[in-house]
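Exercise 3.2. Students should predict the tertiary structure of the chain below and write it as structure tokens, then compare their answer with the key that follows.

Predict this chain's 3D structure.
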Amino acid sequence: MTVSFFPSFPGDELDWVTLDVTPPPLISRWDCPPGDVRPEPVALSVELGRSASTVVLIEGARVYPDGVVLRLTVRVREQPAELRRRVFQQLSVSHGRGMLHLALPPGGLRWGVEFADGQRVTSLDDYSPHTDRPPEVMPADWVPDRPVMRGLGRVDTFGAAWARDIWLWPLPPPGPLRLVCAWPDRGVPETATSIDAGPLRDAAARARPEWPVDPEDR
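Answer key:
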């Protein structure tokens, strides 16, 4: 008998498979990254905008077959820490899509992307795919006619840095991917930076399902 490295746990004797009878929710592929796919990381470091006190960056990407998670990062020079806290507090409710942009002050951070085919999505767009879906169509069967950008999970702050993952759907088409940023209150002028979408698309081809396909699920 093999002795486990770990001490016994009070719940070890429970049959969790039997207890978990709730069917998984139907998630639209444009709404968020798929939980059953292992993304391919891309070492991406792009400066979106800068001033004497602030820099806005994309630091890293995790690429899925249908979209990409971008790591949006802001670094500031504020001292003392209370001033940084106020900047990050505003960012945490006004940097992204959906309800997160409602508290955006007139001079707050705004950013967005433009695909090679001319399609755009920004943090100021007054559009929600959830309200645009016809009521007679199931969420998993409907696809928006424009790109989607939304925040994921919790905001991370450490020292003088603030960061959050942003889901961008669909996967950018071949060609240049234009990223535009402005933050008037922080002295960041409107700045456009183009990167090649090729490495993202190459990475998407390497993303793999996390679990083998069960014939009974087909």
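Discussion points: Residues 96-101 have pLDDT under 50 and may be disordered. The chain has one domain: 38-208.
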